[in-house]
Amino acid sequence: MTTPTNNPTATPGTPNASNAPIIAPSILAANFAHLDREIEAISNADWIHVDIMDGHFVPNLSFGPDVTATVNKLTDKTLDVHLMIENPEKWVERYIEAGADTVIFHVEATNNPAALADRIRELGARSAFSLRPGTPIEDYLDILEHFDEVLIMSVEPGFGGQSFMPDQLEKVRTLRRIIDEKGLDITIEIDGGISLDTIAAAAEAGCDAFVAGSAVYKAEDPNQMIQELRNTAAAVR
Ligand code: DX5
Ligand code: ZN
């Protein structure tokens, strides 16, 4: 869980209070043999995005609650935990105990997203849903009040390092319009293929938070890349 950090741009555990772009590096792209160093290398991040893959909902495996708890011990930053798993109902409590500040589940993996969101909030975390690129947003617009964040996938979930899908920005524009019309306090985050080449378009469409895996970890200086991504998004917003 989050405690205050020394990062002046961070807004731990809360939505986009300062209205500055939130940069959330994905540790999926980190070297797991040196997790402590890899987390230290992104000290300029606002949040840390934690990708959980179960080999069923997506055809790839990453790690589970124990590694999430280890990450939580290594940092005070907000943990934005993206569950790409079947049966998220069975797991949300375990991930919140492990230190998840925000729990993101996939709507394709549950029959009752509003109820699951309410449970996540009752357990003390921020609630979020995500959708595969092929899943329309329209079916979920009437349950937005149950959520603190929506994660738009701009790649097919399962792997880092894929190409950004610009057509997914239409969902961001729809969401931005509805959230603003209803006056809701919901963070719009985007995940997949975010880099210096794509972040401006995502910011322009209305995203508040930006996941970046390979762009950050493949950079020579990850902290500098985080700053460049932040500046690029801020210039548009
Ligand atoms: C994909 C994951 C992403 C991924 C992002 O399933 O949800 O968070 O790690 O990686 P890049 O930024 O490399 O596309
Ligand atoms: Zn993710």
UniProtKB/TrEMBL annotation:
Catalytic activity, per the record?
A: D-ribulose 5-phosphate = D-xylulose 5-phosphate
Spell out the InterPro entries in the cross-references: Aldolase_TIM, Ribul_P_3_epim, Ribul_P_3_epim-like, RibuloseP-bd_barrel
This chain's source organism reads: Corynebacterium spheniscorum
Report any one BP term from Gene Ontology: pentose-phosphate shunt
Superkingdom field: Bacteria
Q: Which Gene3D superfamilies match?
A: Aldolase class I
Q: What is this protein called?
A: Ribulose-phosphate 3-epimerase
Q: Where does substrate bind?
A: S26, H82, G158, F159, G160, G161, D191, G192, G193, G213, S214
Molecular functions per Gene Ontology: D-ribulose-phosphate 3-epimerase activity; metal ion binding
Q: Which residues bind a divalent metal cation?
A: H49, D51, H82, D191
Which SUPFAM superfamilies does the entry link to? Ribulose-phoshate binding barrel
Cofactor dependence: a divalent metal cation; Co(2+); Zn(2+); Mn(2+)
Q: Which PANTHER family match?
A: RIBULOSE-5-PHOSPHATE-3-EPIMERASE
| Pathway terms, separated by semicolons | Carbohydrate degradation
Family membership: Belongs to the ribulose-phosphate 3-epimerase family.
Q: What keyword terms does UniProt attach to this protein?
A: Carbohydrate metabolism, Cobalt, Isomerase, Manganese, Metal-binding, Zinc
The cofactor note reads: Binds 1 divalent metal cation per subunit.
User: Which residues constitute the catalytic centre?
Assistant: D51 (proton acceptor), D191 (proton donor)
Q: What does this protein do?
A: Catalyzes the reversible epimerization of D-ribulose 5-phosphate to D-xylulose 5-phosphate.
UniProt EC number: 5.1.3.1
